[in-house]
Amino acid sequence: YIGYLGRLGVDMFFVISGFLITLLLLREQDRHQGISLKQFYLRRTFRILPAYVCLLTGIALLCSLGSITLTKADWVGALTYTVSFVHKPNWDIGHIWSLSVEEHFYLLWPVAVYFAPRRAWMGAVTAIAVTPGTRWLIQNHVPYLDDGYCSLTRMDTIAVGCCLAYLVYLRSFRQMMNMPVRNAYWVTFTLALLVGLSVWLTMKSPTYEMILHPLVVAGAYATTIWLWTIRADSLFGWLLNSKPAVAIGLLSYSIYLWQQPFLSPFSDKWYAQSPVNLIFITILACGSYLLIERPILKLKERATSSAA
Asked: What confidence score (pLDDT) does residue 291 get?
């Protein structure tokens, strides 16, 4: 069950990322009648790379101390954001597969929106339609990549988030989602049950898991995200915008980066034992945010504003 919960969390991350990136690009297109790819990639570089380099430096230090061991393929994948194509990467950098998928998305999707801002949604729909078949092909004919983490097999979840950003521009969609708060709670509850049922079905049918499960989960997440994005003044919306939730959101990237070495089920090291591991993750995540992310984000604001 823990593995399924972890994948559900990654799927939510992918949907949110596709939605936010696409919405920001479309809004930039509306405001300036164009999209600056240079500005986009500059912002992404400032946001992602510094904290990631810090993580790799820490991993290299642990390797030098003999605490962990990475293969050449692991290092190549980590240094080139291609861990999602590495067969069975070391646990300590294995989680970077999802960041690799994100980077491949960042590389391709903004270009599509740049050249066809009002028609790029067709590319997202194509990704949703093609990815399940790609999963089937890879599982049956490219077993080297058949581990559920390959970029080619995960783009449909992100594409659902991209489609959501386009849907919110449609008046009919906004009117349909503008339901009473009580109805929104019932819809959210029903979608939660649907996700639970989908997880149960994955345990019974590998074919269902391969073809339909990611789309069911992504669709449920996309609907829920927009339902509560427009209801910030509700109880649920208030909880999502509360100080603890905001703090977790601010630290989420650093927590994601630093969690893996301290949560290894294969390690008997003292720093991987509870509750010491949780303390280390918290300290490193806070340090990464306060000493690296926040100062770099301020620098990013100055750099992007001056380059505009």
From this structure: 92
